[in-house]
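quick one: alpha-L-arabinofuranose bound model?
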Amino acid sequence: MKKLITTLLGFLAVAGFASTPTFTVDAARGVGTVSPTLYGLMTEEINHSYDGGLYAELIQNRIFLDSTTKPLHWSVVNDAGSAATITLDPTNSFNDKLTTSLRLTVTKADKKNSAGVANDGYWGIPVQPKTIYRATIIARAEANFSGPVTVSIVSDNGGKLFATEKISGLTTDWKKFEVTLKTGRITPTAKAHFVITLNQPATVWLGMVSLFPPTWNDQPNGFRKDLMQMLVDMNPKFLRFPGGNYVEGDTVDTRFDWKKTIGPVEERHGHPCPWGYRSTDGLGLLEFLNWCEDMKSEPVLAVFAGYALKGAHVNPGADLQPFVQEALEEIEYVIGDTNTTWGAQRAKDGHPAPFKLHYVEVGNEDWFDKSKSYDGRFAQFHDAIKAKYPQLKTISTIGNDQPEETRVHSRKPDMSDEHYYRSVNEFIHMSPDYAKKYDRNGPEIFVGEWAAYETSFPPWDKRSQKEPPTPNLKAALGDGVFMAAMERNSDLIKMQCYAPLFVNVNPGGRQWRPDMIGYDALSAYGSPSYYAFQMFSQNVGDEILSTASIETSVQGSATRDRQTGEIFLKLVNPQTNAVALNLKINGGAALMSKGSAITLAGNQNDSNSLAQPKKVVPLPTTVRGVKPGFTYKMPPNSIVVLKLKPSSH
Ligand code: AHR
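yep, here:
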């Protein structure tokens, strides 16, 4: 057929009838149902996604465990008339989880000359005007200390006091103190630090120091409001967590050990994350689940499956059984009744109602396991999960993007996870045929990680470190063609999510690019890829329509809302020239002559940043003259969502 079209086109060209670039939608031919869960999010602790990112804690190294030799991010503050020293004190700790403390010894101070300790936050402490911050401090003092202890937020330059309060009542016993700090009319800044001072010589020990700004929905131990709003605006239907490599850990011991991430934060020891820094585990299992609920999304729970990043694997059979049990208990924590052990624990932690859960992913990228143990490991998890929770679907981490022989054969996974980090050109070339040949009776497909990169080298190449953390418009065009392909095949591609989601753009903040959303302590922005995703996820019907294109590099997809009859046409022009596209909406759909468009366009190298957060954003326009055949001019380098309403329905 392809040959016939090519031959025909060749004949027309020779005969002088060059055909115009045409994109055809057959509105009479619904070819499948759009997966209602197609668009979602993937997340893990990478690029300071949580600590120094979404998790709103402002104190870095709040339990002093980031290094065993020095109190990173903490420093002495004093003036000409005062002096102090600080040191880690593992012999004096609040409990067996916070295994060290910070000893502050003020050797010289008086009412006018205080001394103490300062924390520089995650690249600064962000302060906003007329805002209440909540500080929590676990502390004890030497005998006969009568206080007070002063806590303040202070500017880096000139020591301007943004907010201050006093704590009294320290004794030789460990105690938790909570205090609120209120700022006045100030200009927002992240050039600030948090300070704890004494105005007399004394020794005090700090077990934990925490500071939170107002959070999303005012949740305690909650999330940054600006970032949550950006996520909600993506209309995500699911959240894949906690990884990614983060679920695996570098070693079995440093996996995401969910039981250590629940309960009061002062009971959480934290753990080294595979991306080179220590995770507080402040954003633990319950916070992930609350996060899903807050976004009206469902969890896609990844469980540790006996393979760690540095190559260790656990043999299927008796050795693996404790980890299978750990996963079953984790599932029980998520969906178990309150009369089960872990359901009761969830209720005790503040959430009696079970969460929604349909999918459990067994591991992450297990094709890296050279021992080839995944088939056996998957089977053991799959059988145990199905036996206890027959309603759940299991996801294998080895999908169609990996060689056939590496995939699971002893069981039929309900779904398999494919990962695509591809150059823009690769996406442009693979997308027209993507998933066309997949077995519609095989496992459902989850594209659990994907992103287009605009560089000549892949994200894991060292040169990436020198590139901006977030991608430019060219990359978003690659994203666009691939998203259109996934949407055309969304009878089978049930879920898809870009990765990584977040990056703290400060020097040293990131380990991977390209990332969708960038931020520092004070503000955040979406990359063109963020807006491309949003355009797709916010405008999706429930019926896939048949599409075809000839003589054009424009790729796209069409869906329809069965209830309203509205057609959503997504078109991507990855070329640097405009295209006058002959749009044919066949099949007798009577359309209103006035439609609307949302367009993301610009120069290929255009990108957003903290300094220019809105350089590339989608713009709405009205489209006139819509009819079954009309010409639509696609700007160069553009993604367009056309919304075409039926004239009657
Ligand atoms: O998204 C970054 C990393 O890429 C993920 O942690 C891992 O699953 C993949 O290799």
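The chain has two domains: 41-56+218-538, 74-212.
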